[in-house]
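#struct-pred
JK: can someone run the complex with prephenic acid? inputs below
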Amino acid sequence: AAAPSSLRPVAILSAERLATADLVAAAKWGTDSPIDDPAREQQVLDSVAAQAEQIGADPDEARRIFRDQIEANKIVQRGLHRWWTVHPEQAPTTKPDLNVVRQKINRINTELVQALAVSTPQRAAPSCRPELALAVLQVHRDTHPDPLHTVALARSLTSVCES
Ligand SMILES: O=C(O)C(=O)C[C@]1(C(=O)O)C=C[C@@H](O)C=C1
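RT: done, structure tokens with the ligand placed:
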């Protein structure tokens, strides 16, 4: 069997980050908090750029990749809010604490910055796209995401391969 790809943790952590979108969507559902929170996005981007720099990775690349992660998160949140608008009986009945969810997102962000740094050579290689596609298929097989999360996972990874 082939050696496990260093891109696999990147795909797994991206899927874990997307799973938090369900919690964020539930936290914001029925409140005045909009899905788009530019101040929080800036905080996330500044933080991952600083963490990347600290471990000798490219901070601008971290910003680029996490912009995609955030866009993907919003795809899931918007999709769920639309779904719950049409099917109110399926809307969540308990509201997670957004600050607690953000602490979880922060932890995943740190792990993802590290996984991206480890996979720098693989991300620069011509084999990145097929390797990443395989990693996504493996995550898909292991986690059985719904179509919304599948689409969003692809969106979250668009800048991971450097060429
Ligand atoms: O923390 C939030 O409020 C989120 O919705 C999560 C998140 C993210 O992916 O980090 C996504 C959209 C917001 O604009 C800010 C941040």
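RT: quick notes.
Residues 7-156 form a domain with the Chorismate Mutase Domain, subunit A fold (CATH 1.20.59.10).
The chain has one domain: 7-156.
JK: thanks, will look after standup
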